[in-house]
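User: I'll paste a sequence; please echo it back and then give the predicted structure.

Assistant: Echoing your sequence first, then the prediction.
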Amino acid sequence: MKWFSLAVLLFSILWLGACTRVPEGVEPVEDFQLQRYLGHWYEIARLDHAFERGLTLVTADYSLNPDGSVAVVNTGYSKGRDAWQLAEGRAEFVGPRDVGHLKVSFLGPFYSSYIVIALAGDYDYAMVSGYNKSYLWILSRTPTMPQDVLEQFLQKARAMGYPVEQLIFPKQEAQPGNRPSAQ
């Protein structure tokens, strides 16, 4: 039975490590400046996944914690539930602080990759990947982004092997009720 416990522990360590890796053929942004990246972002597009399914008006807010980690507050509106959803987490750099590869956690000690793979404008637009190519987000500082910038991001994502034809473009129309905020 001892070997089974050891095998489970080893598998868990390997699996958790895999969740903070960079997908093959993907490079994080270099010369990344966290202070410029902090602030409010609107989700322009995403690949579908269970934890955001059905949400519109999705935004992310990033701020610096006293310990140097990043406070993450994601919000989105669920029409099906007629309610706002809020997720609070924390992010830390995986390696050097000038490389856009962070790990983010919304569930205690369990982290997953948050990889900034493209920036445009003066940190006005960003494209972010997870630990594999089934996670992709396109973000903007405003509720819309210029079509030419979007097309550049889509072309880059397609060249890296992301299934861009499966992207969802959530609505960013007027907000119903009060958006929740972090406590």
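The helical segments are 2-18, 34-37, 147-159. The radius of gyration is 17 Å.
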